[in-house]
Design brief:
Strand content: 5-15%
Distance between the termini: 36 Å
Shape: elongated
Number of domains: 2
Helix content: 55-70%
Strand order of the largest sheet: 1-2
């Protein structure tokens, strides 16, 4: 499920957090699916459980997972993740990339085509329908 890169300069808990986010975003881990316990994952990866606990704490703070006392940690529903995601930060990052592309004289049509291609490639699973997308339609 998760493989750590010991040559990566980032702390292990950040690598774990990013790998779990990737699995959630890719749809490998579905909403309300139970994820391995701290102890299970620490044993699988042969690392300190405190490292896993820190990653899970961050993921919960960011809205990617939720905990149920005496039952474990679960993947949050997409609408919950989206509500907790820093939409403004994502827009700012996207805006900065578009400005950089324009500075580098990337053709507007080329840029739009690239966005559409990437969006289509990641649309292997149906788009989640939530309150936001219904309001925008």
């Amino acid at each position: 499920m998760i493989q750590l890169d010991l040559s990566d300069h980032r702390p292990l808990y950040e690598q774990i957090k990013e790998k779990i986010k990737e699995l959630i975003i890719a749809g490998v881990l579905a909403a309300d699916e139970k994820i391995p316990s701290v102890r299970e994952l620490a044993q699988q990866l042969a690392i300190n459980p405190n490292t896993i606990q820190r990653a899970y704490k961050d993921l919960e703070a960011e809205g990617y997972i939720y905990s149920v006392r005496a039952k474990g940690s679960f993947v949050a529903p997409v609408s919950h993740i989206r509500d907790k995601t820093e939409d403004a930060k994502l827009r700012d990052e996207f805006e900065a990339m578009v400005k950089q592309a324009r500075f580098l004289h990337v053709d507007k049509r080329e840029l739009i085509a690239a966005v559409e291609r990437i969006y289509a490639e990641t649309a292997e699973t149906p788009e989640p329908q939530d309150e936001r997308s219904e309001k925008n339609d």
